[in-house]
Amino acid sequence: MQSVFVKTTFSVFLVVLASLMLSQTARADVTEVHASVDKNPAMVDEGIVLEVTANDSVDNNKFDPSPLLKDFVVGRTSVSTQTQIVNFDMTRTTKWTTHLIPREAGRFQIPAFEIDGVRSQPINLMVLPASSATRGQARDIFIDTKADLSQVYLQQQIHYTVKLYLARDLQRGSLSAPKLQGADIRQIGKDKEYSEIENGQRYRVIERRFAIIPQTSGKFTIEGPLFDGEVVERNSQSFGFFNQTKTITRVGPSIEVEVLPIPAAYPYHWLPSEYVELHEEWQGSSQEYRVGEPITRTVTLTALGVVEEQLPAVESQYPDSVKTYPDQANSATVEKDDTLVAQRTETVAIIPSKAGELLLPEIRIPWFNIVTRQTEFATLPAKTIQIEPAAPGSTNAIPQQPAVDQAPAPDQQAEPMDIHPPVSFQTHDGWWSISSTVLLVLWLLTLLLWWWQSRKQPKRPVAKVKNEAEDQAWQNLMLALKNRDSQQTVQALTRWLNLHFGIKGSLAQCRQRITDAGLNTAIEQLLASRYAPTGADWDANGLKASLITLRKEQKRRKQRPGEGLVSLNIA
Question: Structure pTM?
């Protein structure tokens, strides 16, 4: 009986508890919303933790941090829900935690947040500037940034240095790159780590360098990098190996820069640099150059402070007395002495067709000197090469006229006839002539049979093969546009334009053949988006429409009476 009583009592307890929970759920409602920050005042370059708490379990999307974007950089937001039961009284809370970084020093107000009709109290926040005295006295972690130039030309390199100062043990951390709208930002070299004393405090310093190449003119702000990490928190509650950690956020100070446009009416390809050089190499330059023998010439263009996409093609002119076979140009960007170095290498095989002096014209590459702010030219002087006749006995030698047979001298005429009877030579020559004739006839018959069979087989026109390759490149381009992938779109567009125009060149060379200003503008937006944080600022649909129009117009011009029908596969 006692066990039955216990079971009955326990069942009643569960029913009562469930009823209480259901009743609490039925009448649960938000009655209080509270907002707080972890520090006030705060420094301009350090993170602030904002917590907004509602005394109920509500939808996670009820909190909207967008009003904070005006004065703060808003980081990630995490949501947690907690339920407690004390003396049969159940309480539930929902907490939103957001990291904020002030954009500048001053007095700000964190606005009230409304959750299910209940509003929190606004918070008056004081943000202090991160002065050197403050850093030395009260701060143990901060970031310093520096740019070598505050005014640059379009596509001119900016040397940007970031230093992270640490006076506490770091458990983990990550440092982002700086941000500049419409710029190519690359890290230069590896991180450096050393010690430094600032205002009597010893710091562990992590230094990182970047190259920033702006792609748009105007006045901009280089946003400092963001550091997110955890440091060891040593206090009275820590013991043994179990040290508590604290999450910290720091941001580097912003730097204002002015990007000057290309000088008005600049007539050349824009290449801003402090040093540009042309260099050439000749394969086998110590040997003689002869008619019909290939000569390999390699021309290398080197420029400091730019990337390979900025380098122009090396235009070389050759006389009609030679045949040229250029190879595919190679380009690359490397790092040297904290500076980007871009190189473009072009190799061409030159085959002279006649002997004499071969004059190769001068090669000039214009570039803008960012130091003197003047246009200069990288030059390869004109070169004269002496071409010798083809070597005797070579396949390239000019055939010599056979010498007229002369009668042998009287003292040499009888002796050979006695030693070598002429009958043996005549018999051998006759046999060789007959066998050669038979082989020649058989070869001709084989060639005739092959020609007859080839007439019966359907031929695959070269134009059809080109159309298939162009169609495949077009499908790849449409897929890249559909996915809004700027990098794949640039590659696919360059490939299709090469097939469309029947050339081999870069995207810049292909654009010289495009007369549609709207299409060129769309391509410029595409190229600019490659350097933006996201690819959302270029019009993929507009570029697609312009390309479809170009393709239709080109197909319409190619279609002529008697040339067959042009494929209608457009998209």
Answer: 0.58
